[in-house]
Design goal:
Layout (H helix, E strand, L loop, with lengths): L3 H12 L13 H15 L3 E8 L2 E12 L4 E2 L11 H15 L9 H4 L12 H5 L21 H10 L3
Antiparallel strand pairs: 1-2, 2-3
């Protein structure tokens, strides 16, 4: 299967179709479809979702290929992809933007955001989370279902049940 880097490269390459455009352009959907289809075949990408946004306006939102090959589930504009560790860099960037804006501190304790957290979380800060030094263990054991869509509250409750 193609790597995330390959898929990202594909999308960045496709974005070149719009470089230099100033006003909301007519969308060359046939060219987009042809380029996406060719690159998906070349790089063996089973599926992807594409959004072309110009000045905050969505010009194209479309799914290509399969989200689940085994069950032949097509990619749609509502498909949620498993991002794995890729989300960590985006999370860290957003946290640092909030720090720059003064809305968050790296020294804020988790109990500021989770007042019902267990006592052993008293000393854990945002910095600890960003540097993976909080002591909160991974939750990829047999009791955690990776196929389930957990709510934020369910994830927090699960994490708080783990021993440090």
């Amino acid at each position: 299967m193609a790597s995330f880097g390959s898929a990202l490269g594909l999308l960045l390459g496709i974005s070149g179709l719009w470089s230099g455009l100033q006003a909301a352009p007519p969308v060359p959907i046939q060219k987009i479809d042809a380029a996406i289809t060719a690159e998906m075949q070349r790089q063996k990408v089973p599926g992807l979702a594409l959004a072309v946004v110009h000045k905050g306006v969505v010009l194209v939102a479309k799914g290509y290929g399969l989200a689940n090959v085994e069950h032949a589930v097509p990619v749609t504009t509502d498909t949620i992809f498993q991002s794995g560790s890729v989300g960590k860099q985006f999370t860290a960037t957003v946290v640092m933007l909030l720090v720059e804006e003064g809305k968050l501190s790296l020294e804020d304790h988790l109990t500021k955001f989770y007042p019902d957290a267990p006592p052993q979380w008293q000393g854990i800060t945002v910095r600890h989370l960003l540097t993976h030094t909080s002591g909160i263990p991974d939750y990829e054991d047999d009791t955690f279902n990776l196929q389930k869509d957990y709510t934020d509250d369910e994830l927090a409750k699960y994490a708080m049940s783990l021993k440090l």
